[in-house]
Amino acid sequence: MNISAVGAEQQSNTAGRAAWVCLAIAWVTFLVPIPGIGLFIGWPLNMVAFILAIVAMSKLGAGAGLWQLLASLIASPFFYFVGIAVLAGFLGAAGQA
After folding, report:
1. Which of 10, 31, 42, 50 is least surrounded, with the fewest CB atoms within 10 Å of its CB?
2. Is residue 84 part of a domain?
3. Domain around 46
4. Residue pair 23/72 in contact by the 8 Å Cβ criterion
5. How far apart are the first and last CA of the chain?
6. Residue 1 belongs to a domain
């Protein structure tokens, strides 16, 4: 495989780039301290990113969507629980005021 073929493969990975965009938006919704936004917007976006990672892997090979898939499975729950802690902190501070 030559360098130009690798460059063309990287540029045609639109599903992989879309998966990163969906993951970034999902992670932001997980961290925003609004009740329900992570559950009703973040997790569906995370599922879309998961599916897009699988699409990228099926089109271009395992390396094209592997990091997106792992981020969807490992990093997303971490961001979700951090967001729950942030929300609990905001609610606790509002209750003391």
Report:
1. 10
2. yes
3. 15-96
4. yes
5. 64
6. no
State pLDDT tens for residues 18-54: 999 999 999 999 999 999 999 999 999 999 999 999 9
Mean pLDDT of the chain: 90
Q: Which residue has the higher pLDDT, 53 or 94?
A: 53
Task: Confirm whether pTM is higher than 0.90.
Answer: no
Classify residue 8: in a domain, yes or no. no
Residue 21 counted as domain residue: yes
